[in-house]
Amino acid sequence: MPKGRIRAxxxxxxxxxxxxxxGDVGKEGWSLGGPGFSRIVYCNEPQVHSQIPLKYRSNDxxxxxxxxxxxxxxxxxxxxxxxxNLYFLGCAIAxxxxxxxxxxxxxxxxxxxxxxxxxxxxxxxxxxxxxxDMEVNGRxxxxxxGEGAFGKKAWQDVQVGDVVRVExxxxxxxxxxxxxxxxxxxxxxxxxxxxxxxxxxxxxRALEVTLDFDEDEDFKIFKGMIKCEDPNPSxxxxxxxxxxxxxVYALEPSQILLRDSKLRNTEFVYxxxxxxxxxxxxxxxSTNSPSKRSKIERKMDCIIxxxxxxxxxxxxxxxFGFAVEIKYSMPEWWFMRPQNPDNYYNPGKPVLSGLxxxxxxxxxxxxxxxxxxxxxxxxxxxxxxxxxxxxIQMYDEESGNTAQARTSNLNEELGQVDxxxxxxxxxxxxxxxxxxxxxxxxxxxxxGSSDVELAAAQQMANDLEDKIELDTVVSSNSEKxxxxxxxxxxxxxxxxxxxxxxxxxxxxxxxxxxxxxxxCHTAIPELNKxxxxxxxxxxxxxxxxxxxxxxxxxxEFFQRTQSSVFVREKYTASGKPVDRxxxxxxxxxxxxxxKRMTVIVRDEEGLILLMCKxxxxxxxxxxxNDGRLYQQDTTRHLNGYGEAGLRTLALAYRKLEESExxxxxxxxxxxxxxxGDDRDIQLEKAAEMMERDLFLIGATAVEDKLQKGxxxxxxxxxxxxxxxxxxTGDKMETAINIGYACSLxxxxxxxxxxxxxxxxxxxxxxxxxxxxxxxxxxxIKEEKDPHAAFALIIxxxxxxxxxxxxxxxHFLELGVRCASVICCRVSPKQxxxxxxxxxxxxxxxxxxIGDGANDVGMIQEADIGVGISGVExxxxxxxxxxxxxxxxxxxxxxxxxxxxxxxxIAKMICYFFYKNIAFGLTLFYFEAFTGFSGQSVYDDWYxxxxxxxxxxxxxxxxxxxxxxxxxxxxxxxxxxxxxxPRNLFFDWYRILAWMGNxxxxxxxxxxxxxxxxxxQAFRADGQTSDMTALGTTMFTCIICxxxxxxxxxxxxxxxxxxxTIWGSxxxxxxxxxxxxxxxxxxSGNAYQILVEALAPAPIYWTTTLLVTMACxxxxxxxxxxxxxxxxxxxxxxxxxxxxxxDVEDQCMWTRERSKARQKTMIGFxxxxxAKVRQVQRKGHKKQ
Length: 1183
Hints:
Layout: E1 39-43, H1 71-80, H2 83-94, H3 104-137, E2 140-146, E3 149-154, E4 163-167, E5 175-181, E6 187-191, H4 193-196, E7 201-205, E8 224-228, E9 240-244, E10 247-251, E11 256-257, E12 262-264, E13 268-275, H5 281-284, H6 295-328, H7 350-364, H8 373-389, E14 404-405, E15 417-422, E16 429-440, E17 443-445, H9 451-464, H10 467-483, H11 507-519, E18 524-527, E19 534-537, H12 541-552, E20 555-560, E21 564-569, E22 578-588, E23 596-602, E24 608-614, H13 616-620, H14 631-643, E25 647-656, H15 658-672, H16 679-690, E26 695-706, H17 710-719, E27 723-727, H18 732-741, E28 750-754, H19 762-782, E29 790-795, H20 796-802, H21 808-817, E30 820-824, H22 828-842, E31 845-850, H23 856-861, E32 864-868, H24 875-879, E33 882-884, H25 889-929, H26 940-950, H27 952-961, H28 967-972, H29 988-1013, H30 1027-1049, H31 1055-1077, H32 1080-1083, H33 1089-1094, H34 1098-1125, H35 1129-1138, H36 1141-1144, H37 1146-1156, H38 1164-1182
Parallel strand pairs: 15-27, 15-31, 27-30, 28-29, 29-30, 31-32, 32-33
Antiparallel strand pairs: 1-8, 2-3, 2-4, 4-13, 5-11, 5-13, 6-7, 6-12, 8-9, 9-10, 14-33, 16-17, 16-26, 18-19, 20-21, 21-22, 22-23, 23-24, 24-25, 25-26
Helix pairs in contact: 1-3, 2-3, 3-26, 6-7, 6-25, 8-25, 8-27, 9-10, 9-18, 11-12, 14-18, 15-16, 17-25, 19-21, 21-22, 25-27, 25-29, 25-30, 27-31, 29-30, 29-34, 30-31, 30-34
């Protein structure tokens, strides 16, 4: 806007109800300053806020977990919060004493490496957060520096009281009071996606008194004071006063610009900084996500405790044996010099010696506890998450979004899901609304078919075996889809299109219907310069579809100011387009509680009209006797729309007299400018006074289309044995019909509908609901048909009672017995409560999936939260553990990645315990063999490298790359997924079996080596081996046996597995060669151990081969027996794929797919099975 322009002075208007210019309230103002309302801001005087008591938080923000001072103590606390690390810390400290059986380096180095790596990971993640904070804090904004001049400052330097100028497409640096904008009426448009996840623009409006401050020079002498509420997390409320020029003005949320929201469609705004940094509302809302741990990780802790118990037992045995040897044998051992005892070796004090040896034993057998397990799992999970992120099969071309593992802690949990709790709108459906049909003045218009109607037609055609009707319906729909190219408008009826509505008998009603669509909203038009048409930034997809429909019918909304909306009417009696202005007097906005929206306008003829749209039940209750003329017909049409799965709203209006409106508006302004806890109640009462005696015009029906691939995905998930609950805010009829379209419901499925009655007392209502629940459970119990399926349908009003402590268990029991559960009209809080009930009541893994801010509670409450990056913004994604672009990708996320990750982690952990038991127990055997001397048979460097280098890479490769079957087979045989929920690979039977395998391997390795080397010639001259040769040979057997074992365990080989497994064995021999070549001062007794001692001795190589084969033989026998006599699903599938039977014998492949399919009651497959049974029954009857 050019400088020096003359503003049109706006009178203190009565416009916009909940977001209106309040008039001045006199010099007294509101009584602020009490608890919760003590903040005082001196406008354009930031220096006042540099001293106490008016010194507030700086605008610098920090989202990091650590800082340079706290990193070391906090990170160390996090690491040693783990009991295993704490144990190894104690061992490292004890290694500095004479009690240690190892050198201090061999204990301290592995601990330092593992803890250091974990701390480095923490530091890297926190450094990234720090750099993000630096980027945000370093953003620039124009700030008034004095004398009417503005200069750029970093966000972190902005102070309370500063006047800032924010320009188009910039984020607001703090919470601001809007003073003015480039528009004459002080309006600006704000995108709040970062705050509430909503992508629609919101209008903000400045106080009338500050509208003239529209240029930099105007702030040269500007002064004022704000008294307001203290910092709080409420995004949608604000209470305060603005004192200026001797007057006090009440402030409202409509004048507040929140940090991290963005200025859109507005060239610039000026604002006063009220809240900075962590006092801002967005930062007040920042909370840590709930901590989630997988079931495998929790069980792993139990295994660690079991191993600690084993460690403690064998240490006690060792210390007892040592005490006995000291008391009875040491006096005869002259080389121990019993005449000069000390505290550790004193025949006179065997108990003290035994206790001292206890410390030695705890350190010596510490290798039973896998020190590198936690860090290896972290590495593996991060790499697994990267594979999920890079899966091209889960890339959505339309949105450009990929799957994202927002946390790597729950990868394996994806493979153990039992029940899915899903939102409907935007999750199963697209949240893309198409205006499909409508009812105007008792006449139905629109001939298009919805997806639900097509699904119903297909179902009826199948049931009636009438394919011709089905083909007709589908082909007509295909033509319709081909013709429809207007987003949001899928209407077909020549009676209304192209201006033909002018020929209808009720043309005045039709015109009023279209005008309500074009005027009753809060949307913002945007001109597309390329096409010349307008698009709309609306608060909901429904509202956007209404405006597109109004435009296509000839009523194009094209401009909005603070006081008016402008509509271009294309079809008129004169044949020329006419632009009409409707002055907005009040807007009663839509809320989930009100379920309606009203605008009060004055048209060009001075007539005052109230236009209202909302839920039919709400509108019908507010109709006048004369206004019910079309209610019966409209109700019949609405029922049909609901059966077709459409979302409906009723439209009504009322003409107002000037005196009536003025009297009401006075009362309404009093309610609106009041401050107190009852303000909202007063506003609602005032709204109820006006929203009555309405005249029903008609109803709209829009289709929320099913997302691509949803029925197929649900069918696959059902075959995988997963249960699906749908939690939606839609009414029951719509949800039921979406259920039919998704195959969650089908003909023949018995529906149990639980609904609260209208009894007088709460006890009577609860008693009736409990009776309905018990009756439903009894029906299921008495059902004798094994193929019978039940669906539970319950609404939000009934859930209020069903979720109470004395009823929730009965409700859950009924829900678990049903094939599908649909909860209708549920609130966000009820979604979270249902999720918690199913999670705690079943003890199974629960997955919650949704796309909107109302799904955040459900997503966070579930064991796994999945957010869909859809139309409703990113708040669900930000709260989730995993995000996907479409519901159909959930199939691959669970059935492929979930299955793989579960088996990889399970195998990896079991192998970890196996290898540490196999290695650690050989130390115990040797110590017992040598009189509990506390002597280690291995060189310190061997032990140092065991977990960190020589056995770490193969197990990481196993955890990252293992595949029992390919992704294609996983999708073709979804029933294989049930191995995860049944926990076949990480139950106690399998864990103990792996531990037993480790025990057996340790016995074989130790005793075979002892038997072979005890009195056998080792060198050519007849000398026997020394302890170093024996220990090195045993260690070689351990390295070879463990790596051969992981090779036998691996199902899917790549060059990486080969490199890590065989490379680890090669690395051992390279280490022996290099280590033995070092000076004896470093290598000690291992000097030239391989080159001069072991390599020339045939017994070394034959022993290594014999022991490795003996260790591998039991496992090979077991898997051979299992695959021959008790094969699992993946064994059969691998054999089929190996012999190419899937290619050469398609009949067998199809038969196996049918046999392996999980029995299911929902999904397309269940419908097919039901149809087959129906045909078979008909065939039997004919016979």
